[in-house]
Amino acid sequence: MKKILIMILALILFVGGCSKQGKDEIDEVENNVENEAPNEEISEEEEDVKIEAPDFTLKNLQGEEVSLSDYRGKIVLINFWATWCTWCDKEMPDLQKLKDENDDLVVLAVDVMEDKETVEKYIQEGEYDFEVVLDEDGNVSQTYMVGGFPTSYFVDKDGILLGGVPGAMTYDDMVKILESIREEK
């Protein structure tokens, strides 16, 4: 678990997204890391704290309700995005490739506050077939404290939230995180 969190923190420092606050958020993370006591030990009790990912139910493009908890037993990559986001657009083919190559993974793309027709057209044009749900009022993205797009979270097979990455990831980044999650089990 510690290795996964370190990898995600490293990605936070090196990736960007469609956010006005991106630079400020990275500076804040760097300051927090620098201000940590250099020899501070993490007790086994603190290291083993597990937080269940907040469950949610949203409608997909077919109008069916989809819940995060529907995917227990699989690793879930929750990706918050929007059609107008340049970084999201660059990341989408890599999400599709990752989904196609990993049977134990679900890519759950949560479009934030856009109309169904816009999202549907974008998904059809890109020929993406991962699950897309609509966060029409933005409540789910608020629950997950999304500050910019794209933002991704990883959830293990037991529904435990492992961490998040604000900003776009490369395919290689996604694979490394996925492999790290598998090694932890």
From TrEMBL:
CDD domains referenced in this protein's UniProt entry, alphabetically: TlpA_like_family (cd02966)
Signal peptide segment: 1-20
Keywords: Signal
SUPFAM superfamilies to which the protein is assigned, alphabetical: Thioredoxin-like
Location of the Thioredoxin domain: 47-183
Coiled-coil ranges per UniProt: none
Molecular function in Gene Ontology: antioxidant activity; oxidoreductase activity
InterPro entries xref list: AhpC/TSA, Thioredoxin-like_sf, Thioredoxin_CS, Thioredoxin_domain, Thioredoxin_ResA/DsbE_sf
Transmembrane region(s): none
Source organism superkingdom: Bacteria
PANTHER family named in the record: PROTEIN DIPZ, THIOL:DISULFIDE INTERCHANGE PROTEIN DSBE
Protein name stated in the entry: TlpA family protein disulfide reductase
Species in which this protein is naturally found: Tissierella pigra
